[in-house]
Amino acid sequence: MSRATPQSLTPFSYVILALVGRGGAGPHDIVRMMREGAIFWTTSESHYYAEPKRLAKLGYLQARKEPGRTRPRTHYELTDTGRRALSQWLALPAAMPRVQHEGIVKLLAADFSDDATIQASLAGLRSEIEHAYQNLQEMERRAPSVPHRARYLRLINDYGRRSLDAQREWLDAVQRELDRPSPTATRQPSH
User: Fold this and answer.
1) CA-to-CA separations, 84 to 5, 9, 31, 79, 89, in angstroms, rounded
2) pLDDT by residue (tens digit) across 27-39?
3) Which of 63, 77, 88, 98 is most exposed, with the fewest beta carbons within 10 Å of its own?
4) Contact (Cβ atoms closer than 8 angstroms) between residue 28 and residue 126
5) 163, 39 in Cβ contact below 8 A?
6) Up-side HSE of residue 21: CA atoms within 13 Å toward CB?
7) Considering only CA atoms, which of 90, 125, 95, 94 is closest in space to residue 107?
8) Burial class (CB in 10 A: 0-12, 13-18, 19+), 59
9) Tens of pLDDT, residues 151-170
10) pTM to 2 decimal places
């Protein structure tokens, strides 16, 4: 087992430690939680498979094989080192959320296009928001099944709902504004 240092852990490492939590989790559980909670944290799916393996090598997680339907499945649990690292991290001040919002960047570059094109490009965001609401409902449904986290999951889901509400309201405001005639001179799309 490698000797881990605090520098070995990234913010995403703590996401994995938190998802594994008290009851442990397999890679399929972690990926399911990641998909449902994509409004809170996103990265490529491959990271959700690779990071638990890395944390196990560093001694933060313990991996064991359990019987699966067709083949053995890996199940991760926090080690004492993992629990200690998670507890120490919880005492640190939370960082400001990082937002990567493609719709904002499209508006930033909108002077290279026309309002109708920008509106059409943002339309897909509305359906993604609706899908995120469905995921949130599933997370709310599951919260009571994790009694030691139910209180905190209610708070997290409340944040998720408020965030989605704000995004929906913002899209409505953008649509209203872009439906109005532009106060600036006619733009020429850049080719």
Assistant:
1) 13, 13, 24, 8, 9
2) 989 998 888 888 7
3) 98
4) no
5) yes
6) 12
7) 125
8) middle
9) 999 999 999 999 999 999 99
10) 0.81
Q: Dihedral (C-alpha) 4, 9, 14, 19: value to the nearest 10 degrees? A: -60
CA distance 135 to 99: 19
Q: Where are the domains of the chain?
A: 6-90, 102-179
Q: What is the CATH number of domain 6-90?
A: 1.10.10.10
Query: Highest mean pLDDT range out of 7-11, 28-32, 109-113, 139-143?
Result: 109-113
Spatial separation of the C-alpha atoms in residues 88 and 91, rounded to whole Å:
5
What are residue 188's phi and psi, to 5 degrees? -105, 120
Helix axes 27-36, 45-58, angle to 10 degrees: 130
How many residues in the chain? 191
42: its two tokens: 């996103």
The C-alpha atoms of residue 127 and residue 27 are separated, in whole angstroms, by 28
pLDDT at 1: 46
